Amino acid sequence: MKVCVIGTGYVGLVTGVCLAHIGHDVICIDNNENKVNLMKQGQSPIYEPGLSDLMRSSMESGRLSFSTDLGAGVNHGEILFIAVGTPPLPTGESDTRYVEAVAKGIGANLRGGYKVIVNKSTVPIGSGDWVRMIVLDGLKERLGVTQGEGFTMTEEVEACFDVVSNPEFLREGSAVYDTFNPDRIVLGGSSDRAIAMMSELYQPLVNRDFSENKSLPPVPIVVTDLSSAEMIKYAANAFLATKISFINEVANVCDRVGADVTQVAKGIGLDSRIGDKFLQAGIGWGGSCFPKDVSALIHTAEDYGYSTELLNAVVNVNKKQRVMAIEKLQQELKILKGKVVGLLGLTFKPDTDDMRDAPALNIIEELNRLGAKVKAYDPIVSQTGISHGLSGVIIESDASMLADGCDALVLVTDWQEFLDLDFEKMAKVMKQPLIIDGRNFLDKRAIEELGYRYVGMGR
Ligand code: UDX
User: Fold this and answer.
1) CB of 66 closer than 6 A to ligand 1?
2) Which of 102, 126, 124, 84 is nearest to 226 (CA)?
3) What ipTM does the predicted assembly reach?
């Protein structure tokens, strides 16, 4: 099928590349010319495992191209994905101005046959109908109809497109894998024609043709109305964030009573009603989705006169959790002024270069406030030299350099390669061998055998 994806951030680019890989004819549109030029040369502007290879092979097969020309994209696609950012405003609401600009642009370029316009961006509940209205506004503008002229859409124009909500659930760092191995596909909309076209688009994924485990039953498609599909995305992320805040709260109680939260998580996770995922206690959740989506849901509820007691608590627990590592440093080192603290990892989670709302940012800020000197080593940030606008931290090029002269190390991100670090060598260059394991990631006993004082989160 002919597809146009507008916006080449994490969601848009991964969607475009993966749809091309499963056989569709895809054009990805972005208004950032430098980014488009980079992608035209087969280079991915984001770090995402497996993405660059798929991107290049799809480009070679002629099924994937990039352009800044929205009109050409709209003309090409029978399915048009809106996948631009909806960053949080200071109020916690989503900033939908990019979605609005794209919807208007689609309307202004709408010609030819029937098209499905897909909301892939995480948009506030109710945005499906709003997008439809904006597209019609763009179309009216092109047709030269000014406000107040009593313009009525002909049936033909009204029927030339439908809006569908199709939220994504991919995780950064495993976005390609998640796209080929979805747990479900959610399609929200009222048009049978649009839902049928979307189902056809995803058929290879539904059949698990590109999945790691082809013997699994077909992927369920959940068809809902527009608002329910939009709500599914918020509720899924809010539930996962709640699970993490819950286990972090349990970890804090474990710390006080001398229990081990990793054992508790195992014990409760084996109950199939609870499940073992997202029960890893640590310094809390971050990234581009959880913080934004949880606050947007809280905000929407408030708009409709409902106060979300549980979700407010989920956010507050997470705020406290981020600086819990510092409380532990204070317990161990007492005064932090003049102490040197080395952070292992900076990104909000491993296998990504994303620093958005990363717990590391709060930890650096708080350590600076308390007068400590902060150094950091992160496999991606150190390698790429991308500063991410970080201040108050010295970026070291490897873990030994990081350890040199440190009073303590804090493991902030659970990068797999940290398991293979030479902690014995690192202990020798530290002022004192102390590790705060902010992700309960390291082998406590093995680390202690090397002479470290090991402090985990609730263990
Ligand atoms: C999340 C959702 O998982 C995904 O479905 C949605 O589409 C986008 O948001 P992502 O932001 O990539 O994906 O990260 P995820 O792997 O879910 O982790 C989010 C945060 O929670 C990270 O900071 C991670 O370190 C933390 N986390 C996760 C925990 O602290 N404990 C856990 O058990 C799991």
Assistant:
1) no
2) 126
3) 0.97
| Cα-to-centroid distance, 193 and ligand 1 (Å) | 34
Q: How far apart are CA 247 and CA 251, in angstroms?
A: 6
Tell me the pLDDT of the chain (459 aa) as tens digits: 999 999 999 999 999 999 999 999 999 999 999 999 999 999 999 888 899 999 999 999 999 999 999 999 999 999 999 999 998 888 878 899 999 999 999 999 998 789 999 999 888 898 999 999 999 999 888 887 655 555 556 555 666 999 999 999 999 989 999 999 999 999 999 999 999 999 999 999 999 999 999 999 999 999 999 999 999 999 999 999 999 999 999 999 999 999 999 999 999 999 999 999 999 999 999 998 999 999 999 999 999 999 999 999 999 999 999 999 999 999 999 999 999 999 999 999 998 888 999 999 999 999 999 999 999 999 998 888 776 778 999 999 999 999 999 999 999 999 999 999 999 999 999 999 999 999 999 999 999 999 999 999 999
Half-sphere exposure at residue 101, Cβ-oriented, CA atoms within 13 angstroms: 13
Q: Residue of the nearest CA to atom 3 in ligand 1?
A: 171
Q: Please list the helix, strand and coil fractions of the chain in percent, rounded to the nearest 5, in that order.
A: 45, 15, 40
Could you tell me if the CB of 412 is within 6 A of ligand 1?
Answer: no
Query: What are the residue ranges of CATH 3.40.50.720 in the chain?
Result: 2-224, 323-455
Ligand 1 atom 13: the closest Cα is on which residue? 171
| In CATH, 323-455 is 3.40.50.720 | yes
Q: Domain 2-224 maps to which CATH number in 3.40.50.2300, 3.30.465.60, 3.40.50.720, 3.40.50.300?
A: 3.40.50.720
Q: If you measure from the C-alpha of residue 392 to the centroid of ligand 1, how many angstroms do you get, rounded to a whole number?
A: 26
CA distances from 397 to 349, 411, 442 (A): 19, 16, 21
Domain spanning 233-320, CATH class:
mainly alpha
pTM higher than 0.90 for the full model?
yes
Kind and range of the H or E run holding 377: strand 373-377
